[in-house]
Specification:
This protein is of the alpha+beta class and about 260 residues long. Helices cover about 35% and strands about 20% of the residues. The chain has a five-stranded antiparallel beta sheet. Helix 6 packs across helix 7 and helix 7 packs across helix 8.
């Protein structure tokens, strides 16, 4: 984890604000209990309701066709963007023109979409995957947890959250099960059956169960697993996989919202 290349501050009203350090022709994000606000040059802004946060285009099939999400600005993960679809994309046209954003057509969907740059991809920066993954996790957690959103109105919590985010953002773990040995794969699948997985790739602070509890659950799941013509994983394999894929996964830096 390295210091973020985004400028993370608390605005005069006590709200968390995130923006690229070179703010020209990019949007910043202001986090409030009621909404996320995209802020652009020339005094432009756009309110984004938390209820409209979601992946594109899946959200289009269960809502009115308007949604937003954090995205990569380019396929090379160079940059971070804000993606909007449907009426929100139309409302964002002034911001798109002011920031050099892009229009796009969601695959198989009639709605128009646009992407606004948070960190433009043409900056020559190394991968901004940590900034993308952390902002995506934060906005997703806030959209799903109204109890945590309410804490965005607590100035002291927001100050601590800003300090934690500025101190370093994290990438989502990318360990693949394809490279696991048969025994390690059995343990990884047992973790899934036990529900010992993190919905956003990393845990929220305090979300991980105790080590003894985790190990006992996995051993019990392995004991009831149907035979596959091979021996059960060794104790060393069980402990190694449970630690790597669950116990030792560092949490997202959102402790200020959870404590």
């Amino acid at each position: 984890m390295s210091p973020s290349r985004l400028r993370v501050t608390v605005d005069p009203n006590g709200f968390l604000q995130v923006a690229w350090r070179r703010a020209r022709r990019s949007v910043g994000l202001r986090f409030t209990p009621d909404r996320l606000v995209a802020v652009a040059p020339e005094g432009l802004s756009l309110d984004l309701l938390w209820s409209a946060q979601g992946a594109v285009p899946a959200v289009l099939h269960r809502r009115s066709g308007s949604c937003w999400t954090i995205c990569h600005w380019s396929h090379r993960e160079a940059g971070v963007g804000l993606q909007l679809v449907g009426p929100l994309a139309l409302a964002a046209e002034p911001l798109r023109r002011a920031t050099g954003g892009e229009r796009f057509q969601p695959g198989g969907e009639p709605e128009r979409g646009c992407r606004l740059p948070i960190v433009p991809g043409a900056t020559g920066l190394r991968s901004t995957g940590a900034e993308h993954d952390t902002l995506q996790a934060l906005t997703t957690v806030l959209a799903r947890r109204p109890d945590l959103r309410a804490r965005l109105g607590d100035r002291e919590r927001v100050r601590r959250l800003a300090a934690d985010l500025a101190g370093g953002m994290r990438r989502c773990p990318t360990d693949s099960i394809r490279t696991l040995s048969p025994g390690a794969l059995d343990v990884a699948l047992a973790l899934v059956r036990c529900g010992l997985v993190f919905r956003q790739g990393r845990p929220l602070p305090g979300e991980t169960v105790a080590e003894d509890d985790a190990m006992d659950r996995v051993r019990a799941a392995l004991a009831t697993q149907q035979g596959r013509g091979r021996s059960r994983p060794s104790q060393a394999t069980i402990e190694r996989v449970v630690r790597r894929r669950y116990l030792d996964v560092a949490p997202w830096p959102f402790a200020a919202l959870v404590d």
